[in-house]
Design goal:
Layout: E1 13-15, E2 28-30, E3 34-36, H1 43-58, H2 65-74, E4 79-84, E5 87-97, E6 116-124, H3 133-145, E7 153-158, H4 163-168, E8 172-181, E9 184-192, H5 196-203
Parallel strand pairs: 6-7
Antiparallel strand pairs: 1-2, 3-4, 4-5, 5-6, 7-9, 8-9
Helix pairs in contact: 1-2
InterPro entries: Acyl_CoA_acyltransferase, GNAT_dom, SNAT-like
GO biological process, one term: response to light stimulus
Subcellular location: Cytoplasm
Length: about 200
C-alpha cells in the first residue's frame, strides 16, 4: 500500500429524485468520500468486509458480529469508517486498554480508564484494495485519536508479514505478542499519540 499525502476527495455525486417526488425538483447528494465513526447500525457491513478479508487468509475473523456490535455500542468514538457514496469501503475498530502490553483479555474488553487504544482490526473491501486505502485510513484514524483526550498510544498485533506495512504507518515493533490465536503468532506494535493540548492548537480539534 502506498504512502499517503493528499486525500482523494471528489465532488458529491447527484442522485436522481425518486419518481413521484414533488415536481422532481429536489436533488439529494451523497458525499463521494466521507470518514466518520461507526455505529451499531454499521455492524453487518463491517462484518461482511472483515469476513471476506480474513477468513480466506487465516480461517477466522479478529471480531465476530456480536463482538463488533459490542465495541460499537461501548466505544464508537474509537472506530472509523471510510464511506464512498454512502457505501462502507474500509474501517478500523478499536477499544481502550489499561496495560503496557496486550494480553488475551484485550481481545474482548474495553477499559474506559485506559490510555492505550487497542486497534482490533483494519479491513478494506476487496473491490478497492491495492489503492492505498489502508494507509490513508490508518493516517486518518491516528489523527482522530489525537483529538481524544484519553488516547496516549495505539497498540496492535499483526502477523509478521504485515509488519512492514504498519512500520510505514509509523508503528514500531515491540516484539512477540503474548496473545496467540490457534496456531497463529503475532508481533505487537505501538504508535505514540501526541498530547491533546498540542493537537488542539495544530489540527482544529
Amino acid at each position: 500500500m502506498s504512502a499517503l499525502s493528499a486525500l482523494p476527495f471528489l465532488k458529491p455525486v447527484h442522485l436522481r429524485p425518486p419518481r413521484g417526488s414533488a415536481g422532481g425538483q429536489r436533488r439529494h447528494t451523497l458525499p463521494a468520500s466521507e470518514f466518520r465513526c461507526l455505529s451499531p447500525e454499521d455492524a453487518v457491513s463491517v462484518f461482511e468486509i472483515e469476513r471476506e478479508a480474513f477468513i480466506s487468509v487465516s480461517g477466522d475473523c479478529p471480531l465476530h458480529l456480536d463482538e463488533i456490535r459490542h465495541f460499537l455500542n461501548l466505544c464508537p468514538e474509537l472506530s472509523l469508517g471510510w464511506f464512498e457514496e454512502g457505501r462502507l469501503v474500509a474501517f478500523i475498530i478499536g477499544s481502550l486498554w489499561d496495560q503496557e502490553r496486550l494480553s488475551q483479555a484485550a481481545l474482548s474488553l474495553h477499559k474506559p480508564q485506559g490510555s492505550a487504544v487497542h486497534i482490533h482490526v483494519l479491513a478494506v473491501h476487496r473491490t478497492v484494495r491495492q489503492q492505498g486505502k489502508g494507509s490513508i485510513l490508518m493516517w486518518r484514524y491516528l489523527q482522530h485519536l489525537r483529538c481524544l483526550p484519553a488516547a496516549r498510544r495505539a497498540l496492535l498485533m499483526c502477523e509478521p508479514f504485515l509488519v512492514p506495512f504498519y512500520q510505514k504507518c509509523g508503528f514500531q515493533a515491540l516484539g512477540p505478542c503474548q496473545v496467540a490465536v490457534g496456531d497463529l503468532a503475532f508481533v505487537e506494535m505501538q504508535h505514540a499519540v501526541r498530547g491533546h493540548a498540542f493537537m488542539r492548537r495544530n489540527s482544529g480539534c
